[in-house]
Amino acid sequence: WGVGAIAVIIFAASGGVRVSEEPMRGYRVAALTVVAVAVALYMLFPAKTHFLGDGYQSLGALSDGNLHVKLTAWGEGTIRVWLAHLFRVHDRAGALMVYRLIAVVSGTGFLLPAAFAAGRLFGHSRRSLVFLLGMATGAWTLLYFGYVEQYALFVSAVGVYIFVGLMALRGQIGRWWIVALVVIAAALHIFGVVLILPTLYALTADTATVRRLTRLRWRTKVLLFVAVLGAAIAGAAAIRDQSYFLQYSLLPVFGEELSFD
After folding, report:
1. What's the burial of 226, exposed, middle or buried (CB within 10 Å: 0-12/13-18/19+)?
2. 89 with 63: CB under 8 angstroms?
3. Full-model pTM
């Protein structure tokens, strides 16, 4: 699939495929075809091994009725447990079916927004299809082939966040939509908190306050940066000191009683 997509891209870019001069003629049909083929591949060629991450352990826990939800992936875990109850999972085959269902739905939920965003961002059939084919053949799509872990939904949420963010920065959609997507991504997995800083940038990039800051003298900018960085470090250290989980999880700059040389 990947090799074939690359061949199509090269062939189209070289002029081998004649695309109508009308900017978006035929794009919807072509885009839906790409999405349909990709989803069919997710379903027809699921992963046969699950040794990456905690795959086999996760399958065993779900099949044995261990429906514990990790706080670090509360959203995904809640959905998985709900599906296990819905389908009355009691063996490894049922557990694998739940994970595969989540994977396929995640892939579909990634590609449909990618197809929509491609059309809005590029406004031309060829460029939009090249973008969509790139999204449909990236390494992250391995998560959609029945990957047994807790990242498929999260990665799809991050992808949708990027698509919406790009459209928001171009004024094609309201910027506050990305706030909702940050909340969804962080609920699916704690890694979603890394989207907070780019979200702040997207919301404030064109504001009068930011424009005034850009006109400050460089020395003032440096002092302001150091002050903000120092406050952030102090705040992070204070939060870490209140949580044993963070103390064990985050490597300190200097050795302490909870770290090992």
Report:
1. exposed
2. yes
3. 0.78
